[in-house]
Structure formats: structure tokens, C-alpha cells
Amino acid sequence: MFPIIQGNQIQKIDVAYCSAEGISSLELMERAAKSFVDWLIPQMQNSKGRFYVFSGPGNNGGDGVAIARLLKYLNHSVHLIYIKDVDQCSNDFQRNFERLPEGVEICRFDLWNGKIEPDSIIIDAIFGVGINRPLEGTYLRVIQTLNKQVGLKISIDIPSGLPADQASFGEVFKADHTATFQFPKLSLLFPEHALVTGEHHVLDIGMSDSFLNKFENGNFYLKQNDILGLHRTFHRFSHKGNFGKVLFLGSEQGKFGAINLSGYASLRTGSGLVHLAPQIENTFAFNTLVPELMLYQDSSKSSLYQFDAIGIGPGWGMGVEKDYFKSIFVRFKRPMVIDADGLNLLAKYPELKKEIPENSILTPHLKEFERLVGESANHLERIEKASSLAKEFKVIVILKGAHSLIALPDGRRIFNSSGNQYMATAGSGDVLTGMLTSFLGQGYLPEHAAICGVFHHGLAGEIASKSKRRGMTASDIIEAIPDTFIKLNLL
Ligand SMILES: NC(=O)C1=CN([C@@H]2O[C@H](COP(=O)(O)OP(=O)(O)OC[C@H]3O[C@@H](n4cnc5c(N)ncnc54)[C@H](OP(=O)(O)O)[C@@H]3O)[C@@H](O)[C@H]2O)[C@@H](O)CC1
Ligand SMILES: [K+]
């Protein structure tokens, strides 16, 4: 997993990396510039190949100057607009400025005529992770001017004006794409910044996970390769008992779809036996979506021990009695998945939080999370609260959304990379509950169940949305679950 390094540590990393690799900071900048251009060129198939690069005074600006050179070498039309006098810019900026080839149109911002030809691509290299205060004066004017321009806008490393690991504190360049070096900066993962970051892309500049891990501060970014080693393997002699017997409690009258979706998702994730216990008196009235799902009638006296894992909450309703709710924790005793009305009931009866079995997985979306822990001023505060909740009650909190956060009881915070906007559809959360419960039931450690569940869920969404886009439903996500195992070559 990539650690997500704090902005104010990044200069230290540059120095340590350059000395370990025996390269100069200028060479590292060249690598960054090259990785950017290698990523950029295939993106711009229909463009005329005309670029306007705006460079600020630091090394982000230096990246921009190096990129202007590399684009010119590829015979593109390149304009470089710099903002501060060159002799007041960073050393590596100045070294790159000296290397600019003939044909790059160079102009200082205050002398620039303000014209950008249609179909041009605007590259923002004004500020990177070194931003330390809100923009004012000329810099503010530059960003305001560029935000009014039409055309594809791309930020290098981070949209200028956005601090690396805090909530935005002023005007920010509005990018369509952000190409960030080596690992995403924390603030790129905040939902409230989506309009300025656009789509973000992580570009490799050669730093290994093990090198970066020396600078980690508990935040990590989950990639596809990270989950491969976490999966259990099964063999020809495995029988349905090995794949787990799971139970879902939820679905009051009128919300039958909820645990049906969870149950079906758990079958598709590999569960051997799946039972549903709807919150209704007469289960004859309950139709299961697929014949493989079995009905179970729970009574608060019976043992739940026969199940390997349970998932509670989807469509449950708020009529569940407190004592019955508590009895589930007491009767099962082992890690379980708590979602939807299970979480709303915890918000209603906060004294029950301490009864939750250790290492259980709680899966709130932003609204459910707010009910549990109160309002947050921004996503940074939300992340801190999720982490505190995980540590205090020794549970795993999955804060759902783009780049879902997995907050672990030991304080680590893992941000997911899979998934897309089309997954914001009814029942998507019930599917996740089914997948998490399935992995728990197959004997995965709760931490691994959480990581695999979140990643596969996002990947299934990506696969299903290829043909369905906005029309994708939760059932489509379920149907794509087997493809996630095939894609990752997992037997
Ligand atoms: N490690 C990596 O992965 C690699 C990183 N690389 C690149 O380096 C970038 C970081 O470079 P950086 O440290 O020079 O910071 P950057 O943001 O360019 O500028 C800081 C300058 O801005 C100034 N300043 C700050 N706020 C201001 C404000 N509001 N208004 C006005 N001025 C303000 C501040 O001066 P100050 O006035 O505070 O003295 C300082 O002069 C990084 O994002 C990436 O693109 C790659 O090249 C190689 C691999
Ligand atoms: K930038």
C-alpha cells in the first residue's frame, strides 16, 4: 500500500530519495515531468496539441517548465506563462528555464495578453504541495482568470491553491484532471474537493512502497496488488462448509430487497450457505430473490453460534427493540457486519456501542456516520472521528463514498482506490454488506475482510458500469462480483 505522506514531509522525502538513489533533485524533477508527459499524450487524442503551461515560483512551477520543454520536443505548440521573476524562483525552476528550447512562447503573466486559443489544454503548475497560505494578489488573479477559461484543465500534482492535507482555505484552480506524483495527496480524497480535483491519476516516479513507508503517518492508499495476498485459497477438497455459513438480519415489511441483495451478493462472493432472517412475523410472506437463499426465523433465545458470520441492518427499520438488538451482540459474540438501520439503532441507543463484538465492521455512509458521531465541519474532521470511533470501540469503520475510508482499531486509515460515481445507486451498500459478511464467513481476518470487501465492491462497480453507466443497478454490481475474482486471477 502507498503511504499517503503529509505535504510538509514531501521535501524531506525528495532529499532522502535523491541521496539514496544517487540522483540530483533536478533529475527527480525530470522523472516527474516525463511521467506526466507519458500520461498526458495518450489522453489528448482529439486535441490540436496546443498547450498553455502556467508556472509558479516553486518546484511545481519547475515541473511545468520541464513539461513545456518535453512537449515542445514532441512538436506541440507550447506557451509558458510564468508569474514571478525567474531569478526569484526555485533553483530547479531556474535550471529548467535555462534549458527551454526555441519555439516555446514565453511570457510573464503581467505582460500576457490573456488570450488562449480554443481547444487548448491548460496546465496548472502554479503551486504544488508547498502552498502554505490562501492566495492573494497576482496569484489569486491568475487562478480566477484561469477558472473562467474554457478548455481542458490539468493540474500537476495538486490543483493550485489546495493544501495537501487540509480542507481548502481559499480560491483553488478547478481542474478536470489532476495527475499526482507517486501517491495521492490526502486532500484529493475529500468529497468536498471533487469539483476542483476532477478525476485524479497517480503517476509513478519510481519511489518504492518500502522507501515511502519510512515516512508513513498512518494513512494509506489501497491498490489492486495490495489485496492479492490477503485472499484465502480453496482447493478441490473444499466443501460448502469451508466457504462459510452466513446470516443476514434486516428487511422489515416493504424493504425485502435489502437483505435479498446482501444475501445474493454473499453467494456471488463465494459463501457456501446463506440464510436470511427478515424482520417480519410471518416469513411465508417473504420471497427470496434466488432459490439458493434460505430463510431463518430468529428468536432472541436461540444461539447464533452455528453461523460463521452475520450481517445486520439492511432495511431493518427502527422498530427493532433495544433488548433484541443487544441480544444479537451477546448471542453471536464474534465480529459481525453492522450496516444501515443497525447503525441508526446504535445512534438511537449509544450505550450499546460498547457491546459490539471487537473487530466488527461498521459501514456508515456519510449521513449514517453523522447520526452516529455528530456533524463534521469537513472531511478531515470526519476522518479523525471515524478513526477515534474505531480505536475507542475496537471496531473497523468503513466510511462509504468515493475513496471509502477503512479506519482500523490500531489507528491505520486506508483509502480505497476502486469504484466510480455510478455506484451511488439504491442497494449498493446492501451489496457491500453481503460481500464483507461473506469474506468474514470464509474465515478472513476482519481487517482482510474489510479491505477485500471494499476493493472488490468498487471493482465490481467499475466492471458493471462499463456497459451500464448511469443505468447500473445494485444487481448489476452483484453480477459483476465473479468477474472481479477472474480479473485478479484468483482461483
Ligand atoms: N516529492 C515528489 O513527489 C516530487 C515533487 N515535485 C514537485 O515539487 C512540488 C513541491 O515543490 P515546492 O515545495 O517548491 O512547493 P510549491 O508548491 O511548488 O511552491 C512553494 C513556493 O510557493 C510559495 N508560496 C506558498 N504559498 C504561497 C501563496 N499562497 N502565495 C504566494 N506564494 C506562496 C513558497 O514561498 P514562500 O512565500 O512561502 O516563501 C514557495 O516559494 C510538488 O508539488 C511537485 O509538483 C517534483 O518536482 C519532484 C518529485
Ligand atoms: K498545481
UniProtKB/TrEMBL annotation:
<feature type="binding site">
    <location>
        <position position="258"/>
    </location>
    <ligand>
        <name>(6S)-NADPHX</name>
    </ligand>
</feature>
<comment type="function">
    <text>Bifunctional enzyme that catalyzes the epimerization of the S- and R-forms of NAD(P)HX and the dehydration of the S-form of NAD(P)HX at the expense of ADP, which is converted to AMP. This allows the repair of both epimers of NAD(P)HX, a damaged form of NAD(P)H that is a result of enzymatic or heat-dependent hydration.</text>
</comment>
<dbReference type="GO" id="GO:0005524">
    <property type="term" value="F:ATP binding"/>
</dbReference>
<feature type="domain" description="YjeF C-terminal">
    <location>
        <begin position="223"/>
        <end position="488"/>
    </location>
</feature>
<feature type="binding site">
    <location>
        <begin position="400"/>
        <end position="404"/>
    </location>
    <ligand>
        <name>AMP</name>
    </ligand>
</feature>
<keyword id="KW-0630">Potassium</keyword>
<dbReference type="GO" id="GO:0052856">
    <property type="term" value="F:NAD(P)HX epimerase activity"/>
</dbReference>
<feature type="binding site">
    <location>
        <position position="429"/>
    </location>
    <ligand>
        <name>AMP</name>
    </ligand>
</feature>
<feature type="binding site">
    <location>
        <position position="160"/>
    </location>
    <ligand>
        <name>K(+)</name>
    </ligand>
</feature>
<feature type="domain" description="YjeF N-terminal">
    <location>
        <begin position="10"/>
        <end position="213"/>
    </location>
</feature>
<dbReference type="Pfam" id="PF01256">
    <property type="entry name" value="Carb_kinase"/>
</dbReference>
<protein>
    <recommendedName>
        <fullName>Bifunctional NAD(P)H-hydrate repair enzyme</fullName>
        <ecNumber>4.2.1.136</ecNumber>
        <ecNumber>5.1.99.6</ecNumber>
    </recommendedName>
</protein>
<comment type="similarity">
    <text>Belongs to the NnrE/AIBP family.</text>
</comment>
<keyword id="KW-0808">Transferase</keyword>
<feature type="binding site">
    <location>
        <position position="315"/>
    </location>
    <ligand>
        <name>(6S)-NADPHX</name>
    </ligand>
</feature>
<feature type="binding site">
    <location>
        <position position="60"/>
    </location>
    <ligand>
        <name>K(+)</name>
    </ligand>
</feature>
<feature type="binding site">
    <location>
        <position position="430"/>
    </location>
    <ligand>
        <name>(6S)-NADPHX</name>
    </ligand>
</feature>
<dbReference type="GO" id="GO:0046496">
    <property type="term" value="P:nicotinamide nucleotide metabolic process"/>
</dbReference>
<dbReference type="InterPro" id="IPR036652">
    <property type="entry name" value="YjeF_N_dom_sf"/>
</dbReference>
<dbReference type="InterPro" id="IPR030677">
    <property type="entry name" value="Nnr"/>
</dbReference>
<dbReference type="InterPro" id="IPR000631">
    <property type="entry name" value="CARKD"/>
</dbReference>
<feature type="binding site">
    <location>
        <begin position="128"/>
        <end position="134"/>
    </location>
    <ligand>
        <name>(6S)-NADPHX</name>
    </ligand>
</feature>
<dbReference type="InterPro" id="IPR004443">
    <property type="entry name" value="YjeF_N_dom"/>
</dbReference>
<feature type="binding site">
    <location>
        <position position="124"/>
    </location>
    <ligand>
        <name>K(+)</name>
    </ligand>
</feature>
<dbReference type="GO" id="GO:0046872">
    <property type="term" value="F:metal ion binding"/>
</dbReference>
<keyword id="KW-0547">Nucleotide-binding</keyword>
<dbReference type="GO" id="GO:0110051">
    <property type="term" value="P:metabolite repair"/>
</dbReference>
<keyword id="KW-0067">ATP-binding</keyword>
<keyword id="KW-0418">Kinase</keyword>
<keyword id="KW-0479">Metal-binding</keyword>
<comment type="function">
    <text>Catalyzes the epimerization of the S- and R-forms of NAD(P)HX, a damaged form of NAD(P)H that is a result of enzymatic or heat-dependent hydration. This is a prerequisite for the S-specific NAD(P)H-hydrate dehydratase to allow the repair of both epimers of NAD(P)HX.</text>
</comment>
<dbReference type="InterPro" id="IPR029056">
    <property type="entry name" value="Ribokinase-like"/>
</dbReference>
<comment type="subunit">
    <text>Homotetramer.</text>
</comment>
<dbReference type="InterPro" id="IPR017953">
    <property type="entry name" value="Carbohydrate_kinase_pred_CS"/>
</dbReference>
<keyword id="KW-0511">Multifunctional enzyme</keyword>
<keyword id="KW-0521">NADP</keyword>
<comment type="similarity">
    <text>In the C-terminal section; belongs to the NnrD/CARKD family.</text>
</comment>
<keyword id="KW-0456">Lyase</keyword>
<dbReference type="GO" id="GO:0016301">
    <property type="term" value="F:kinase activity"/>
</dbReference>
<feature type="binding site">
    <location>
        <position position="139"/>
    </location>
    <ligand>
        <name>(6S)-NADPHX</name>
    </ligand>
</feature>
<feature type="binding site">
    <location>
        <position position="365"/>
    </location>
    <ligand>
        <name>(6S)-NADPHX</name>
    </ligand>
</feature>
<feature type="binding site">
    <location>
        <position position="157"/>
    </location>
    <ligand>
        <name>(6S)-NADPHX</name>
    </ligand>
</feature>
